[in-house]
Each structure stands twice: as C-alpha cells, then as structure tokens.
UniProtKB/TrEMBL annotation, chains A, B:
Gene Ontology terms, MF aspect: carboxy-lyase activity; pyridoxal phosphate binding; transferase activity
Gene Ontology CC entries for this record: cytoplasm
CC cofactor: pyridoxal 5'-phosphate
Record family assignment: Belongs to the group II decarboxylase family.
Keywords, comma-separated and alphabetical: Decarboxylase, Lyase, Pyridoxal phosphate, Transferase
Lineage: Eukaryota, Fungi, Dikarya, Basidiomycota, Agaricomycotina
Listed InterPro entries: Aromatic_deC, PyrdxlP-dep_de-COase, PyrdxlP-dep_Trfase, PyrdxlP-dep_Trfase_major, PyrdxlP-dep_Trfase_small
Record PTM N6-(pyridoxal phosphate)lysine, positions in chain: K300
Pfam families in the record: Pyridoxal_deC
Biological processes per GO annotation: amino acid metabolic process; carboxylic acid metabolic process
Full protein name: Pyridoxal phosphate-dependent transferase
PANTHER family: GROUP II PYRIDOXAL-5-PHOSPHATE DECARBOXYLASE, MIP05841P
Biological source species: Suillus placidus
Amino acid sequence: MNAEQFRRAGYQAIDRICDYHDSLRGRPVSCQVEPGYLRKALPSSAPTEGEDFQLIADDYQKYIIPGLTHWQHPSFFAYFPTSSTFEGILAELYASSTSNPGFNWSASPACTELEAVVMDWTAQLLGLDKSFYNSSEVGGGVIQTSASDSALVATVAARSRYIREHPHVAMEKLVLYTTTQTHSLGKKAGLVLGLTVRALEVTAQDDFALRGDTLKVALEEDVNAGFHPFILIGTVGTTSSGAVDRLDEIADVAKNYPLLWLHVDAAWAGVAFVCPEYREAYQLPAINSYIDSFCTNFHKWGLVHFDGSCLWVRHRRHLINALDVTPEFLQSKHGDAGTAIDYRNWHLGLGRRFRSLKFWFALRARGVNGFQKYITDCISLNTMFAQRIYESDLFSVVTKPSLAMTVFKITPKSLPHLETSELNALNRAFYARLAARSDIAITQTELNGVFCVRMVIGAEKTVEGDIEQALALMREEAMVLVGNWARMRG
Amino acid sequence: MNAEQFRRAGYQAIDRICDYHDSLRGRPVSCQVEPGYLRKALPSSAPTEGEDFQLIADDYQKYIIPGLTHWQHPSFFAYFPTSSTFEGILAELYASSTSNPGFNWSASPACTELEAVVMDWTAQLLGLDKSFYNSSEVGGGVIQTSASDSALVATVAARSRYIREHPHVAMEKLVLYTTTQTHSLGKKAGLVLGLTVRALEVTAQDDFALRGDTLKVALEEDVNAGFHPFILIGTVGTTSSGAVDRLDEIADVAKNYPLLWLHVDAAWAGVAFVCPEYREAYQLPAINSYIDSFCTNFHKWGLVHFDGSCLWVRHRRHLINALDVTPEFLQSKHGDAGTAIDYRNWHLGLGRRFRSLKFWFALRARGVNGFQKYITDCISLNTMFAQRIYESDLFSVVTKPSLAMTVFKITPKSLPHLETSELNALNRAFYARLAARSDIAITQTELNGVFCVRMVIGAEKTVEGDIEQALALMREEAMVLVGNWARMRG
C-alpha cells in the first residue's frame, strides 16, 4: 500500500467511523452471534498473495462490526463504561503513525516527556497532592495498561520495600489485604505473585466499606500468628456497588504499621475527583495525606481510550528499586534521574505505546469544564434513575447509589413475603430476561448473598430518553415475571 | 467535537501522516531535544475551557514530532525495529473507534474470535506445530503486550504447575534459568515474582548459545543443593548478538526434568520462521517437538504495530489454572471452554485492546509472500553489510551475523597490537561518535567483556543506498578516531 492508497483508505475509514457513530443509537447494543461464528466465516489461513485493501475494509464492516458489543451505545449500562471519543481516535491515529517502544527517554523523548507532563495535569485535575506530581521528582505518575497492572506494580513495589527491611521473611508469610468487595485484581495479584490474599469482611450496614476496626483486628491476628501483611488494596468505588473504603480510619490504624503499603484502586470512581464536590465523600483528603499509591482508569470514565490506567506513587524510588534492570544495550546518557524518567522501571514490561498523546488531546479539547460537565451529566442521569427506583413498586435499591451507579433488585410490592432465596431466584430470572435482550446491556452482581442488578451510566450519548427507555423495559420484564411467579405460586 | 469536525480533523491527520511518511528520509533519525524540553514548552496545567482541535493538531506538529526518534527512518539500525505500516495504522484507527476492554467473549465476541483465528493463521505462517493452534482446543495463542509480559505469564504458569506437584517447596528454593545473554526480561520476571534467577554461562566459542551440557551441570548442582529449577527461558536470536540456544540439546537434557518448563523467547528472530529456509538453523524443529511456550513479537519485525507480542502455549490449561479468577460480575453464559476463549485468563491483567485487527489487516494485505519478501529483503541487506565488514581493514565482526543483525567492532589493521581494554576504549569512542550523530541510529552492546556495535536492519524504507551511507559514515568516524589514536600514542 503506497501513500496515495493509504490516503484513500484513510478517508474512507474516517467516513465510515462517522457513519458508525451516527448509526449507533439504531443498532442493537449487544450482538447476536454465536461462539465460533467468525472462525466459520473466515478462511483457515492467511492468503498467499496480498489482497486489495478495499476488500479487507469491507470485510471489517461485514464480519467484525456485527460481532461487537457496542460499549459507546447510549443503552450500554453494563460493567463500567469504556471511553471512545473523536479526540481519542485522532490521538491513536497520530500515535500509531510513528510507532516506537518508548522504553526510555532516548527511545523517543517526546513520549516520556509528554507522559510526565500529562500525568501532572491529570493529578492537578483530580486535586491530588503535589507529592504525587512528576515535577516533585520524588513521587510521580505513570500510565499503565489496566488497574490490574497498576495494583500488581504497587504490590511488587510494596513487597520489595518490605523484604528490604525484613530480608529473612519467607514469601509464604507475606499477606496481601483486600476486602470481599475488592475487584478481582486483588486475587489476581496474589495468583501472579504466588502470595496469600486475605479478603477482609465488609457489611451491608457499612455500605460494603472497609472500616478501620476490621483492619485493626486482622493486623493483630496476622502479626500474632507470625504473618507479615505488607499491602492493603483499598477501593474507592467498588465494582459491585461503588463502595468507598474508609481510608481515613484505615490510615489511622496503619500508622502503627509503617511498612504496610496503602494502595487505592479507584479505577472507575477516581475520575469523579475532577468535580471538587465529590472529593471529601470519596476520601480524597485521606488519599492525599496517607496513601502510598493511587490508581484511576481514565479509559473507563475519563474520556480517554483504553488503555489509560493512571498510577501515582508517593515515592518513585520504591518502583525503581523493585523493577530496575538496566543492561548494557539500554544504557544511555539520559538515565532515570530528575525529569528524564525511564518509564520502563515504573511498569512490568519494557516497551510501551505512546499513550500520553490521547490524554493530551482529551485534556486540551475538553478542558477542565468539559470533564466536569461529562461527569456531572452522568451522575445527574443516575440520580434520576435512582429516584425512579426509590419510587417504584417493583424495584428497590440494594445499597445507596454511588456517583453514576445504582445497584437494585426486583422486590415487587405485590409479592411481599418472599424469602431471600426466592428473591434471588426472581432476580436471577429478571436479570436473565434483560441479558437476553439486545436493546440494553446491563450486568449482575452479588452482595453478601443478595443477587442484584447493577446499572452504570457513562456513554457520552446517553440522555434522559435512554434512561426512560431502560426503565420502561425493566418494568415490562418485571411485570411478566411477577405475573408468571404469581401464577406459579397461585 | 462533532462528527463533521472529526471528519475534517481526520482527513487532515491522514494527509499529515502521508506527509510525514514522504518526508521521513529527509529528517534526522534521532532528535536534538534536551531533557525537559517539553515541560518548558507546555503550560503547567490543562486548560479550563476546551480548545479548538486545529490548535492541538498544530501543536502536535510543533512540539511532538521534533521530539521523536524516528524508528521507521531508513537509517534506523538501533535496538530492534518497531513496525508501523499503513495497514496497521488503519487497523488501529478502526479498532479505536469501537473501544472496548475485551476481557471475555461476551465483552465483544469479534475481538476474542478474531484473536483466536489470527493467532492460528500466524502459527501456520511460522510453521508452528498444530498443538499450538487455538483450534486444537488444548494449546493456543494469545496476543500479549511485550515479550516481557509473555515471559512473565509463562513463568507464572510454570511456577503454578510446579507448586501444584510440589506444594511444600518454599518460593525461595525455586530457580528460574536464563543465560547471561537472555534479554533483561528474564531478570525482570525474577524481580517481579521475587524469585531467584540463575544466568547460565555461554561462550564466544559457542556463538553465545546455551549448550545442553551447561544446563545438565546446573540442574545437577541445583537439585543436589535442594533448589528447584522450574523454568528455563531460552532464546532464539538474543538481543546482543542474535544467538540461538541449542534447544535440541536442551530438550534432551530436560527430558529427565518433566516439570522444567521450557519457554522460548524469539521476540525478534521468531518472525523469520515465515521463511522456511531459516527454520532448521533457528531451532523450529525442537520448538515444535519439545517447547512448552513460544513467544515472538510481530510488532518488532513482523509488520504489525506495537503492541503485538504473540505467545503460544502447548497446554492452555496451565495458563488458566494459574490465572483464572472469575467473579460474579464476569460470569457469562459463554465461558472459557472450547472456542469461546476467555483471554483474561491468559494474561496478567483483565482488560485488553482489540489488537488482533492489525494482525488480520497485515496478514491479508501482505499475504505470506509479502511477509517473506520483507524478511528476505532485510536479511539480504544485512548480508551485504556484513560482507563489507568482513572485507574491511577497519572493522571486523564479533560473532557470526544473524539474520538481519551484524555485531562488529573497530579493529584497524593499522593498529594491530591493541589490548582488549584499548580496543574497548577505541570502540566506546567510536560508538560515542556514532551516537552523537543525528543521521544514523545504532546501538552498542558488550559480549563477554568485548564492547561492540550492533547493526540491525528492519525499517521497510531501508534500501542499499542507506547501507552504503551507513558504511561511509562509519568509515569516516573510524578514520578520525584512528588518526587521533595514532597521534596520541605517536
């Protein structure tokens, strides 16, 4: 493909992306394909001779688009949102045109430098303490692939710091703390590193937040039993219900355990710190005062394409001490000192994409006001949704709504005396009916034995009418179920 | 930004990428910026109000492009190549327009399905055994971020398999084998996992390849001393010199250690298997018969954008056993069985970009013949370069050229009696002169105490004239040095 062929194919791609964008509302959210559909449709090997690009571009429309779940669809309320903005598409386009592995400053200075700058812009946007800025030359921020990677990197740094102080502690005696509500990233960090994970209990009464006393008891138990808790992964905005661990209480307990690393996973909720009004309730003061590392994923709710997981650390030296390997062929005159960061020592791998460009484009194109408007629009829509659930005779919230998430269940007033197991069965059936539909995408969860449905708002195209439509179809499915249930029991 | 503004900005981006491509040969390869240049040029925070995109696009040209190292420049001979093709840019463009985190089949079926298909196409392209194909439903292939991640995943799977069989072995007794020539990914896997790494010795006489006998002695020593070697990371095409570990001999020794996982890192050289004539010399028969996992990075020498590190395993269950965490909110009707792969259990994180699209585009647009032509063109250019080094009175090769890499040093016939330390000093000075130039990018290495310069050919734009130019400027710098040296010693 020469430059002129690329120009034609590129214009066409831009046009087709515009068409996709314009047609999104009219498409089903989830797709109708069966496992194996694509293998059946495609040849079993690559062609011998190269094919004309027009054929390939057309096959993308024919085979790929129909097999996608449309995460930017206005009726996508599942999991957490995944950003895809026009500014971000342009950033990925420019970045891919000068591909390089960016593992140190010299490999492509602009990539390292822009990452250092935009991580400071972003820290400021969220109201993070200046000790987390790259310009502090002590702490700093780095873009990771996902919150799992961020938590894994923090855990490796924490373990390394702990073992430096206690070189004779057996790995089997190290303990990583999470709660029962922590994202699977906690358990996975334990699996990857071969370390014991202890999930601390949280209760519905505490809105599934970890309390200081629970941590205190666990630490005493474990230390007395000869174990060495070395990190706690706390959460601001859990995946299941948007719960916020009581970092203020946790920090107070942790004061007596100076080698217990405090990592905060705020993958989804952290971006809401762009709005100052949510900072106190979502524990930013404690994060700024006490936390060793903090993660939020701008690729979720922050108008930046996947992958854009931001990790800030209070002391960069703990990352570098844990991860630095500098062989001869990577030595260069500009090392990992001062402003010339060698980001390869801040993450697990070596090479890295030029991911800061999409942050720069988004932050400039939207401005602080644009980010605030987007976040508050999503929260307003959720407030409206939650209000309708509160007023409903069919549904009730399971735990208090959190930012743009409402966790609810079907609890028909017409069926007042159901046992938990019956309610769970009813809710599983309700969720199954929603999951079978292609005009809404929504996910389930379980909170201490209670099966529930979780609604998260985040697509930029979602407006009030989409929430009304979601409520109407939920009501429709619930009514069918309640009718069936009454007949079965009648 | 609305769709029409995006269309204009998109067309402009395509045009500017064409211009960049056309102007590449005329640019310096490496850039002239100093550490901190970008922080000085940019504001210290994001703007309050969003900015016009034209301003942002112009600032990309003004501030970013001049700070890039141009890895696709025809005179880029440093590190290893990093692909950036027109087809790949288009794939990244389309993929970013429907961003989703693809962590399981349901999250976007086409993403999982296409990855499973193209990893089979790619396995076939390289001549890998069918037991590595996804269609085997026993083994399989997955796209990872980098060879470091691939090696880390293999190490985690190997450790998990070993610990299942030997549950009472302390982590401190586990040993990961590499050689002294293994890429830093081996040492980093050890750091990340907190495990002991033993780098086995290799010699210049063996062209820096690991021999079976060396492994045999190490295994006996370690097992007798109560250690548990559980994985060997072998290399096909080392970073420093393109060395190829003797996997045939290694497999023969490893037969007596059935829990010793054999991982092969062929990050750069593995792609050369697209040409059948290199398969035997680069140990494909042993890989196909004995190896547990195999990695090659198509984003290096395989016409696919970063990140596209391919990892194949003989038994997918070892990955899943080691990494599966399936919380309630990720349970779906299509689980990790048969063809509906849940790729989240095959890598470290959870979310993943839609990276298979760029493989599909590249494989179709170039065809098997296109890949073969690209690889053989690079190798021919290197053969020509190496021939000129052999014939030179200024330079000599340090170890036999490997595919598209030549490692050489300055050994002037006019200075016949230099000690190793003097030769090293001369070569460091020679390399420093090359590194100070902006019309060539090349890297250094050290092979068992000998400082040398490594030349790797891989940019698609490189032609014979570029090699001639590189040789001319190397000669020019060498002559200056030899003159200085003679005067100093004179």
